[in-house]
């Protein structure tokens, strides 16, 4: 799964990678994005592809309580087309969630050790996502929200967790945002591209466990067991 992630690259770097038009959006570096936090996503309309700020944790339009969002941060790619909470967004509201890396926790004798996972080519990741516009029953509160798709982990990352975000490259991103990902062959292509993303991981400080902590120190390599 993906329960925390970091995004600190310049918007221009992501714009070049995924063809975003409005690179002028000022995005604050975030090293510890947690469920319900605001984060940047990329989505398309009829004329352009741009950044939007949304809350992490998808709220389908029919959700009665926004507290549901904290349980909707990930969606399984294998079943996303059928699940009631995700199927509408899967058809019409796909997005890319840019990240420089994400975190997983591994059980050790000294407690759960966090690891930071990133692209070994030192480039931003594009995680496949879905988004939704939600408003409260009285119409007074409105939120744009998103979720991150996950798939089976492969390679060395599988030793850390059996699930990982679906990663998009420039080609699969075109299909994903164009709206043809409900075509099974295209979806298989997207999952294949995810498996081909070269990832690396290293242990980091347990300070990341507290969602109030932020900053570059959170992703600095630590020795296993020395991440306090």
Walkthrough of the structure:
Strand 3 (38-44) and strand 4 form a beta hairpin. This protein is globular. Strands 3, 4, 5, 6, 9, 10 and 11 form a seven-stranded mixed beta sheet that branches. The protein has a five-stranded antiparallel beta sheet with strand order 2-1-7-8-12, with no helix packed on it. The chain has 228 residues and is of the alpha+beta class. It is built from four helices and twelve strands, in the order βαββββαββββββααβ. It has helices spanning 11-18, 87-92, 170-178, 184-195, and strands at residues 5-7, 30-33, 38-44, 49-56, 74-76, 94-99, 101-108, 111-119, 125-135, 142-152, 163-165, 199-203. The mean pLDDT is 87.
Summarize the structure.
By secondary structure, the chain is an alpha+beta fold. It has helices spanning 11-18, 87-92, 170-178, 184-195; strands at residues 5-7, 30-33, 38-44, 49-56, 74-76, 94-99, 101-108, 111-119, 125-135, 142-152, 163-165, 199-203. The mean pLDDT is 87.
Tell me the distance between the termini.
23 Å
Tally of DSSP helical segments: 4
Rg: 17 Å
Would you report the number of β strands? 12
Low-pLDDT stretches are none
Helical fraction? 10-25%
The structure class reads alpha+beta
Shape: globular
The main sheet comes to: 7 strands, mixed
Order of helices and strands: EHEEEEHEEEEEEHHE
Q: Provide the β-strand percentage band.
A: 25-35%
The average pLDDT value, as a whole number, equals 87
Keywords:
228 residues, alpha+beta, seven-stranded mixed sheet, five-stranded antiparallel sheet, 4 helices, 12 strands
């Amino acid at each position: 799964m993906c329960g925390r992630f970091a995004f600190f690259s310049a918007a221009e770097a992501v714009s070049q990678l995924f063809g975003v038009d409005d690179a002028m959006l000022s995005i604050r570096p975030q090293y510890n994005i947690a469920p319900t936090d605001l984060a940047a996503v990329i989505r398309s309309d009829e004329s352009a592809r741009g950044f939007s700020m949304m809350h992490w944790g998808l709220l389908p339009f029919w959700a009665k309580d926004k507290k549901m969002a904290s349980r909707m941060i990930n969606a399984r790619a294998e079943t996303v087309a059928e699940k009631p909470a995700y199927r509408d967004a899967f058809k019409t509201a796909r997005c890319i969630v840019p990240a420089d890396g994400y975190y997983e926790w591994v059980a050790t004798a000294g407690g759960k050790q966090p690891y930071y996972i990133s692209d070994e080519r030192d480039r931003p990741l594009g995680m496949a996502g879905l988004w939704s516009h939600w408003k409260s029953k009285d119409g007074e509160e409105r939120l744009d929200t998103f979720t991150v798709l996950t798939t089976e982990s492969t390679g060395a990352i599988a030793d850390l967790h059996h699930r990982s975000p679906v990663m998009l490259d420039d080609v699969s991103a075109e299909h994903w945002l164009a709206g043809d990902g409900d075509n099974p062959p295209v979806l298989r292509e997207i999952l294949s591209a995810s498996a081909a993303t070269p990832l690396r991981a290293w242990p980091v400080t347990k300070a990341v466990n507290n969602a109030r902590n932020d900053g570059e120190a959170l992703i600095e390599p630590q020795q296993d067991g020395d991440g306090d």
